[in-house]
Amino acid sequence: MKKASIFISALMILFSCKEYTKANAQESKKLKETTEEITFNPATIKKHLYTLASDEMEGRATGTPGIEKAAQYIENEFKKIGLTYFNSNTSYRQNFEHNGIKMFNVMGVLEGKSKKDEFVIVSAHYDHLEMKKDGDGDRIYNGANDDASGVTGVIALAEYFKKKGNNERSILFVCFTAEEMGLIGSKYFGKGIDASKFVAGINLELIGKEPKTGPKTAWLTGFERSDFGKIIQKNLEGTGYKLFPDPYPKYNLFFRSDNASLARLGVPSHTFSTTPIDIDPDYHKVTDEAETLDVNVLTETIKAVAIGTTSIINGKDTPTRVTIE
Ligand SMILES: [Zn+2]
């Protein structure tokens, strides 16, 4: 009896050890995967930012040769990542004309695994301001923070979600044109979609400088207009990164970026930002250069957007719709 129980005990210990080792291996595999999944390479982020904000792009004003170069860069990245075309489009471009200017949004799709008819949009505007006509010194509005930082985020997130490969919903990555001319690109885009199929809008603007709330924080426009922000906050719990409501309500920022064009159609579409715009010396100035940005802030913010939106991308959470009177 005693012998038998010793034998059984030994067997049990052996078994539980084996189980423990198995569980441990699974746990470390999970941890490894998580770590790998949330890694964004700052060198790649920097490359996107510095290319898009380079003098060669001449300010990326809509309808200029400079913005054409920016578009080609984005298209090339979308192609490398393996994004497909939206709906019946035959390229990444959505061409249209406004006030006699030929323009286009650049968009690519990562098809959803089980809910491919439900779209989450990840966007930023790739246009900026025209060059100064004359004057000495720097005449180029590089628009590094506004909004090469956001476009960098769109490209990096496309690469991230493609690699991750578990987006249950379809993700539409869009770089809007003519935002600076009055949200023209996003308004045009909005006219062509069935808004009921769009479950959320993630827009990125000015995400390259540390906000007043400190490192590893960002703010969201229109926070109270849906529960999108609360979902993000929940997903960011334990990461050390925090999301706050927009600290500048008087600037009416919710209506001043491309998220508004979708929000007006009922889509819970919000803009992530980090920059203390009330004191930023470079906003809409020729000094908005890549060197004034903090690549770590940019990288951390893109990573936070990736983690924060996970439950929306994988179909577990659906934010409440927006109503605008
Ligand atoms: Zn902007």
TrEMBL record:
Organism name: Tenacibaculum skagerrakense
PROSITE patterns tied to this protein: PROKAR_LIPOPROTEIN
Single GO term (MF): metalloexopeptidase activity
Alphabetized SUPFAM superfamilies for the sequence: Zn-dependent exopeptidases
Biological processes, Gene Ontology terms: proteolysis
Source organism phylogeny: Bacteria, Pseudomonadati, Bacteroidota, Flavobacteriia, Flavobacteriales
Pfam families, per the entry: Peptidase_M28
Domain Peptidase M28, chain residue ranges per copy: 105-305
Record protein name field: Peptidase M28-like protein
Annotated InterPro entries: M28_fam, Peptidase_M28
